[in-house]
Amino acid sequence: MNPDAQHIPVMLEEVVENLSPQSGGIYVDGTFGGGSYSQAILSAAQCHVVGIDRDPDAIKRGQGLVQKYQNRLSLIPGNFGDIKTLLEEQKIYQVDGLVLDIGVSSFQIDEAERGFSFQKNGPLDMRMSREGESAADVVNNMSQEDIAHILWKYGEEKKSRKIARAIVEDRKEKKFETTFELANLVRSVLKGGEKDPATRTFQALRIYVNKELEELERALEAAEEILRPGGTLVVVTFHSLEDRIVKNFLKTKSGGDANPSRHVPEIENKTSISFKLPSKKAIIVGADEAQKNPRSRSAKMRVAIKVGDIKAI
Ligand SMILES: C[S@@+](CC[C@H](N)C(=O)[O-])C[C@H]1O[C@@H](n2cnc3c(N)ncnc32)[C@H](O)[C@@H]1O
């Protein structure tokens, strides 16, 4: 771990303003990272924060804050998809707020050894939890069709088949071991363009390896169960695949149907309403923040308030 590394939190003020921490409340920071959200929540009220992160480095790094906030901050290693079980293990059954700041932290991207960045040479890893299948396992062992599908589905890569074909051809000579080996291959297949041609391939592999979209869906379902009526859910996302999941979930759960079916009788088309939305629109970063922190430019924040169980009619 690099002791000088840092992560600039995105939309920090908006997160705290919307969570509106109250003394005595319990708030969950489901993506603890460098702990900036947790610290801001703890400073806003005499409350308790449970920080969750699947990256063991984030949990290790956060131990100083656990000491600093004496009994007000607990850190749990784990996946936010398992949030309900993780909280129950701490004998917490309802919370006042939950925030998720989806994606990777600068600590992860900036450390070459984690293998997230095509701009730094390191092992082709990309596992936030350091467990399970790595990006190298995917490109070295999966079929051409499966690799193409991953690049298309999670990277929205139009040339997915061409890249997958080149990967499978190249690995016959030598298996992929490093980020530069893969990035250079993608660049040799796709020339030009504004962004680095390897951007979408790396995004796709990262999302696939960490099952990011599936975990986000599981966390949203869990949020519905663990938030007390009146409790607040805040989700910050960084690309359209993630935001679409949050938007559709909240639309359905607040009484609008994300994908209404003409074939299902009206009454069956309704699900119970569990959230109300202060605004249907996502909050985006202000010009000032976008200028100071370019990484924040694509961020979108959605806020929802848990309501008691109401059946939509
Ligand atoms: C964008 S960073 C959060 C930064 C944090 N808000 C801060 O201010 O420092 C995302 C963090 O969430 C973690 N993470 C991503 N997906 C996760 C998941 N499914 N379960 C738990 N942690 C996850 C990552 O390991 C990373 O540390």
Characterise this structure.
With 313 residues, the chain is an alpha/beta fold. The chain folds into two domains: 12-107 and 212-311, Rossmann fold; 130-209, Putative methyltransferase TM0872, insert domain (DNA polymerase, domain 1), CATH 1.10.150.170. It is built from 15 helices and eight strands. The protein has helices at residues 12-19, 36-44, 56-61, 63-68, 83-89, 106-110, 135-141, 144-155, 160-173, 179-189, 199-209, 212-226, 240-253, 266-269, 287-292, and strands at 26-29, 48-53, 73-77, 95-101, 227-237, 272-276, 283-284, 300-311. Strands 1, 2, 3, 4, 5, 6, 7 and 8 form an eight-stranded mixed sheet that branches. Helix 2 (36-44) links the parallel strand 1 (26-29) and strand 2 (48-53). The longest helix is centred in the C-terminal third of the chain and has 15 residues, at 212-226. It is globular and about 60 Å long. The N and C termini lie far apart (54 Å). The structure holds S-adenosylmethionine. Residues 7, 9, 31, 33-37, 52-55, 58, 79-81, 101, 103-105, 128, 215 line the site of S-adenosylmethionine. S-adenosylmethionine (SAM) binds next to helix 2 and strand 2.
